[in-house]
Amino acid sequence: MKKLSIILFALVFAGNLFAVDAAADFSAANKLYAQGKFPDAAKAYETILATGAQSPALLFNDANAEFKSGRLGRAIAGYRRAALLAPRDPDIRANLAFVRNQVQGATGRERFWQNGFSTLTLNEGAVLTAVLFWLMCALLVARQLRPALAPKLKGITRIFAVLTACSASVLVWQTANHFSSATAVVTTDNATVRSGPFDDAQNAFTARDGAELSVLGRRDDWVQVTDGTGKSGWLPAKQVEVLPGA
Amino acid sequence: MIFAAGFIWLAAMAFGGAACAANFTASLDRDTITLGEQATLSLRFDGVQPQNAPALPAVAGVQFQYVGPSSSFSFINGQTSSSITYNYIVAPQHDGEFVIPGMRADVGGQRYSSSPLKLIVSKANAPAAGATNSGSEIAFMKLALPQNKIYAGQTLTAQLQIYLREDVQNIVNFQLPSAPADGFIIGKNAEGGRYRAQVGNRVYTVIPLRFALTATRTGMLTLGPFTANMILVLPSQNQGGDPFFGQFFNQGEQKQVSLATEKTSVESSPLPEQDKPANFSGAIGDFTMTASVGPTNLTVGDPVTVHVQISGRGALDAVTLPDQSALQDFKIFPPTAKTETTDQLGLEGRKTFEEIVTPQNAGVQEWPQFSFSFFNPEDGQYHTLTQPAVPLVVKAAGATPMPALAANKNSAPENQIPQDISPVKDSLGTLATKSFPLVTRPVFLAAQTVPVLAFIAAFIWRKRTDNLANNPRLRRQRAVAALMASGKADLKKYAAANQPDEFFVTLFRLLQERLGERLDCPASAITENVVEEHPVLRGVPKATLAALRELFQLCNQARYAPVRGTSELNSVVTQFEKTVAELQEVKA
Question: Which of B438, B453, B461 best probes binding to A when mutated, by most A CB atoms within 10 angstroms?
Fold first, then answer.
């Protein structure tokens, strides 16, 4: 018992130390940003991210620093990652839209229903669906245990059933989108998309820094992409950041 | 008829052995065939009748397919002979020399063996020009190209012409197993209209098969030899008689053939660098372009739709919109493209692009002219199609006053175009480590089964409760069972306390309840007479009835008899328990 207490205390203490360190590093990176040292700030944010920790604010600030350093693709990738954690954050949405406007050529643009479906994170959607499902089942159980209440509970049970079905449908879409589609954000200027996954392959088209391309497949260190107009080809994986979702 | 056939066979079996010696032979209908053709292997048993078709040895590169048996019987000058032949189709998978090893068969305790067979399979080759022109070939095939010099990336229409001599009635099971096209991509194909042609002194039906070919590199490219396998239906040579009836009843005989074309070389040249337009993006063919832009009177940020249609003949898939990255004053969204072809090979048609653009400032005065360049292989020159600039009237975003009713003081921040990104956040927020989403965690998924199980449990409980409520007999059974349990305890208590009055009142009531429940009648109607009279109790053992009767009598006597002792009352309890247990078997 004593050993267990010591281990628990060590774990909690280590966690606090980790958080304190990250907060200090975060403040230091913010200072670099305020001084206009954007590439240094970006590096400082990435050092924190490299520890495995992440928060919407950390990803957002990192994306800001990337944008101010002139790296549109990395900025867009950062904002999209932040939006996965905090999809309703107006600052993230505004900055993502602003940076997309700076990209020359084709850029990503969510449809209105995609925006609606992405209002919740995948975990929030899962919890909401589970809560609605549990409540619906609780009502069904109550109707079985107290048949006299069944007529009164009929309407609300139906409402919860519809809500659960809607929420589950959105969750299925979110899950499918998260796991079965991916987007490659080009992070180098004028990336040459080739017709095959090798350096000598013919040029198919050129993608600008920040272009958001749908991922069709991967092979070794190459990513097969399409720009949505029928043009497709292969890009070296080091020239893109691949993110989940369309 | 069946009887007659059976008799002949029995006769053959009876006399055949004596008439001729048993023998087993294997043979091929021909020992040399062309790849794609099939030979027939026959295993013939003379004078013996195996139970099953013999198993064939495995031969690498050759497939055997069992067709079926055929039998024959002859009776000549008192000598009878019979044989059965098992036939197999032999289909080689590649050219070369194959040996079908000798086979053994055990029939009637005797072992028979056959000799090995050799089959030579050669590749299909184009017939010699002399043979073709003389009209001696039943069928042959040619590859026709419109030209032998092309440009890399150019698409041309090749034609595979299948010549069938006039006496060929039909062609079935056409296959094109080999179409080597080094340096080409073979596109869609389509069968053209058949026509007749005179070759030598014979008339042939020509079946043209057109297909698209696109050169993918420069240099000498080779096409062919293309090979095709098919079965030709020819007039049967064995059927004589009236030609008039022959045309209706002559089913023809099938002949499998393999055809091949000559190998053809094509010179593929690179596109000329001279006069190559800067915006050339690889389109090869002959095209025209139309474009429209609208609306032309708009506000900054409003969408403008640009329609561009490129029509003509060539590789439409390779046609792309000109690069518009230099258009700094417009935000350009990804265009959509739709290709509509008007021919079967997909070489003619139109490709329509639709693009949404938004002007970024009020200084925009026109949608600039843009041009589309292509290379026409017919004249060997580059051509550039130009769409003139389209004037635009672009107003500033705030220039159009909002109607007074619609104006909203708080709506401004969302509609204003921001000048810079939002600043960094001061608070780090809650740190989290990267983890898998909840929907992939087994614990989360397993937890969702809890409400389902709870509902199932509640549903079963409800059903059982309803079942009990709707079954008064079952309800009474349970009530009486509960009463018996508590009543026995009461009896023991009264016996221990030596309270005979309460004891026998309780005993009488318990007997009434138990018997009433068993006989499905009111408890108050149960008396000692019921034991004697009720038809249901007639099947009960006499000992049980006697015990019941005695218990009732004890209850009646207790009203008049002196008080009994505890031990005697306890023995009554034992008798009651035993009798009640025996009554459990009684069913109304």
Answer: B438
For tokens 């899950």, the residue is A175
3-state secondary structure B193-224: CCEEEEECCEEEEEEEEEEEEEECCCEEEEEC
Amino acid at position B119, single letter: L
Give the ipTM of the model, two decimals please: 0.80
Strand segments (E) across B315-454: 330-332, 336-341, 348-359, 366-367, 370-376, 381-387, 390-391, 393-395, 432-433
Nearest to A126 among B425, B438, B451 (CB): B438
* Distance from the B452 Cα atom to the nearest Cα atom in chain A, whole angstroms: 7
Rg over alpha carbons for chain B, rounded to the nearest Å, is 51
Give residues 105 to 134 of A whose Cβ lies within 8 Å of B: 105-107, 109, 122-123, 126-127, 130, 133-134
Residue B206 in contact with residue B145, Cβ under 8 Å? no
d(CA B491, nearest CA chain A) in Å = 38
A195 contacts chain B (CB < 8 A)? no
Residue B486 phi, psi (nearest 5): -75, -35
Strands A212-219 and B32-34: unpaired
Of the candidates A29, A32, A34, A35, which has an alpha carbon nearest to the alpha carbon of residue A57? A29
Rounded Cα distance between B514 and B520, Å, is: 10
Contacts of B338 in chain A (CB under 8 A): none
- Answer whether A123 sits within 8 Å of B334, measured CB to CB: no
- Select from B335, B421, B428 the Cβ nearest to the Cβ of A26: B428
* Interface contact B325-A33, CB threshold 8 A: no
Distance CA B62, CA B72 (A): 29
Which secondary-structure segment (H or E) carries A141? helix A122-145
Facing residues of B254 across strands? B233
Q: Which of B334, B430, B434 sits opposite A229 (nearest CB)?
A: B334
**Residue type at B528 in one-letter notation:** E
From the CA of A117, how many Å to the nearest CA of chain B? 16
Any idea what the Cα angle at residue A219 is, between residues A215 and A220, rounded to 5°? 125
pLDDT in tens, chain B (588 residues): 444 444 444 444 444 444 456 788 889 888 888 776 778 899 888 888 887 777 788 888 888 888 888 888 877 777 778 888 888 888 888 888 898 888 888 887 788 888 888 888 877 666 666 666 666 788 888 888 888 889 888 888 898 889 888 888 888 888 877 778 888 888 888 888 888 888 877 888 888 888 888 888 888 888 888 888 888 888 876 555 555 555 555 567 788 788 888 888 889 888 888 888 888 878 888 998 888 887 787 777 777 888 888 899 888 877 887 777 667 788 777 777 888 888 888 888 988 888 878 888 878 888 888 788 889 988 889 999 888 888 888 877 543 334 333 334 444 444 455 667 888 888 888 888 777 888 889 999 999 999 999 999 999 999 988 888 888 888 888 899 999 999 999 999 998 888 888 898 899 999 999 988 888 888 888 888 887 788 777 778 888 888 888 888 888 887 776 556 888 888 889 999 998 888 877 776
Contact B432 A231 (CB under 8 A): no
H/E element, B116: none
Q: Please state the φ and ψ torsions of residue A17, each to the nearest 5 degrees.
A: -60, -40
Secondary structure of B252-290 in the HEC alphabet?
CEEEEEEEECCCEEEEEECCCCCCCCCCCCCCEEEEEEE
| Yes or no, beta carbons of A175 and B438 under 8 Å apart | no
- Provide the CB-side half-sphere exposure for B186 (13 A, CA): 17
Write the residue in B320, B421, B438 that is nearest to A127 by C-beta. B438
